[in-house]
Write a structure and sequence with these properties.
The radius of gyration is 23 Å and the shape is globular. α2 packs across α6 and α4 runs parallel beside α5. The protein is an alpha/beta fold. It has a 7-stranded mixed beta sheet with strand order 14-15-16-13-12-18-19, sandwiched between helices. Strands 9-8-7-10-11-21 form a 6-stranded mixed beta sheet, with helices on both faces. The protein contains 15 helices and 22 strands. Bound molecules: NADP nicotinamide-adenine-dinucleotide phosphate (NAP). NADP nicotinamide-adenine-dinucleotide phosphate binds next to α7 and α8. The site of NADP nicotinamide-adenine-dinucleotide phosphate (NAP) has 28 residues, from α7 and α8.
Length: 480
């Protein structure tokens, strides 16, 4: 593959390097199973070097003028958009999502960088009224220090944007570890940061052993914050490991989103929202619908329309025009969806659409709909992360609210209704960090993104997205 950003090196302290051992890992194109390149298989030694480089760079970068950092971030935003097409096709090649979705991911990544360049200017301190006249009480914000960012394969570019943006705006330096399945979109941020003019060591990118890199990051007292997006299981491990050095952690973890269709909903709009909330990125997003709850009176109409829309989708290599569904990330992901379908059918579910591997072979899977879903089926509790719609039927609102909240996850939830009172009840009672009412796609840079319960700690985006990268200090000026 010929792409300016297919860089088979890591960036440490301003140098593009291989693993010290020379070891590499192959990276596949999930659409073709072809190897598109190799990346350094780095471990503890390289991680220590990257942390040291970030620590050195922090000394001056954290003291840089705000206006300089804003201008560097604006350069980074422009560099990203100047290379929009190359970055999008690289993303599709390593991840599989259709090109139009990859273009959208690069665009929202750029928007996050811009947002934090703006937001840092509004990060104000405070002068608190003092209890006595001879004192002034100041509250000020300071960059937290060296930040480690660990990101998943499903949004390999924008998940890093949401971390680099606030970290670099705040004056932090970064050691980033992209997912092994999709490393190139992460490594590309190193080249873009260089192009934008960030000093050496401010952005460091490592690929390789997650245990060795993660372990070294977590044990390091120099790394003051870890920002992680990925599975709840790995997130819990990192939270445990953070205790020894009392690091700040931000955790964007797994989800199990309910999508509730009430009997007063605009069913066409609900189907349109469902298609985005379910099938975007082949169902492999943390905010993807996991469970549809449809009120009995509108169940058959909703299911028939969802089935028609699902079966109209064009499946193929995401690089090709008009493709709406690409391959899944790997064979394990396909096997997991198959296992969930078998489990559901054994427990009385009915496959009304799809249900099998696609005749394109490899990691392609037919978009699938199962009706008659029940709470004992695996997908009621586990994240599907695939193009499988599980439809549960409900009779009354209380039943829907209770079922929607019956999970340890709390990332995203969706509901369709025209009833204002119901909409407010949904906003109050759904135990989710992100709630879409009459909308299936709600992520936007201006709003805080993050989960409740076991879906995470902290927010990305919005004004809240900056707070985790800043320490707050209180200074008492006495004897005035
Ligand atoms: P994952 O297996 O948890 O991996 C995420 C990242 O953590 C990868 O870079 C991985 O490296 C690394 N990692 C794995 N084990 C580690 C360890 N012991 N120490 C340090 N790092 C470690 O998740 P994934 O399969 O890539 O992504 C899918 C998951 O992410 C889903 O659960 C999804 O819901 C969640 N997600 C959440 C959000 C959100 O905003 N809440 C957004 C997107 C995705 P390797 O690639 O080298 O294994």
């Amino acid at each position: 593959m010929n792409n300016l950003f297919l860089i088979e090196k890591n960036l440490i302290g301003g140098q593009w390097v291989d693993a010290q051992s020379g070891a590499t890992l192959a990276v596949n194109n999930p659409a073709t199973d072809e190897i598109i390149g190799h990346i350094p298989n780095c471990g503890a030694k390289e991680t220590t070097l990257a942390i040291t480089a970030a620590e050195r760079a922090f000394d001056s970068y954290s003291r840089s003028n705000l206006s300089e950092r804003v201008s560097l971030l604006n350069n980074l935003h422009d560099a990203l958009l100047d290379n929009h097409e190359a970055l999008a096709s690289l993303l599709t090649a390593e991840q599989g999502k259709p090109l139009f979705e990859a273009r959208g991911e690069i665009a929202i990544g750029a928007a996050y960088i811009k947002w934090f360049a703006e937001e840092i200017r509004r990060s104000k301190g405070e002068l608190i009224p003092a209890p006595t006249n001879d004192r002034r009480l100041l509250v000020t914000h300071h960059p937290v220090g060296v930040v480690a960012a660990i990101t998943p394969w499903n949004f390999p570019s924008s998940m890093l944007a949401r971390k680099l943006g606030p970290a670099l705006a705040a004056g932090c330096t970064v050691v980033a570890k992209p997912a092994t399945a999709t490393p190139y979109s992460g490594i590309a941020w190193g080249k873009l940061a260089e192009e934008a003019g960030f000093p050496a060591g401010v952005v460091n990118i490592l690929t390789g052993s997650s245990q060795a890199i993660g372990g070294t990051i977590m044990a390091s007292p120099t790394v003051r914050k870890v920002t992680f997006t990925g599975s709840t299981e790995v997130g819990k491990t990192l939270i445990r490991q953070s205790a020894d050095t009392v690091k700040k952690v931000s955790m964007e973890l797994g989800g199990n989103a309910p999508f509730i269709v009430f009997n007063d909903a605009d069913i066409d709009a609900a189907v349109e929202g469902a298609m985005i909330a379910k099938y975007r990125n082949m169902g492999q997003t943390c905010v993807c619908t996991n469970r549809f709850y449809v009120q009995a009176d509108v169940h058959d109409e909703f299911v028939a329309k969802l089935q028609a829309a699902t079966e109209a989708m064009n499946i193929g290599n995401g690089m090709d025009d008009n493709v709406q569904q690409g391959p899944m990330i790997d064979h394990n992901a396909v096997a997991k969806v198959e296992e969930m379908i078998t489990d559901a059918v054994n427990k009385g579910g009915t496959v009304i659409s799809g249900g099998e591997r696609h005749n394109l072979g490899k990691t392609y899977f037919q978009p699938t709909i199962i009706t008659g879903a029940t709470a004992d089926m695996q997908f009621a509790t586990d994240e599907i992360f695939g193009p499988l719609s599980a439809i549960f039927k409900f009779d009354n609102d209380d039943e829907a609210f209770a079922a929607a909240n019956a999970t340890e996850y709390g990332l995203a939830a969706y509901a369709y209704t025209k009833d204002l009172a119901r909409a407010f009840r949904l906003s109050n009672e759904l135990e989710y960090g992100l709630i879409g009412i009459n909308a299936g796609l709600i992520t936007t840079v201006e709003a805080p993104f993050g989960g409740l319960k076991e879906s995470g700690i902290g927010k990305e985006g919005g004004s809240q997205g900056l707070e985790d990268y800043l320490e707050t200090k209180y200074t008492c000026l006495a004897g005035l």
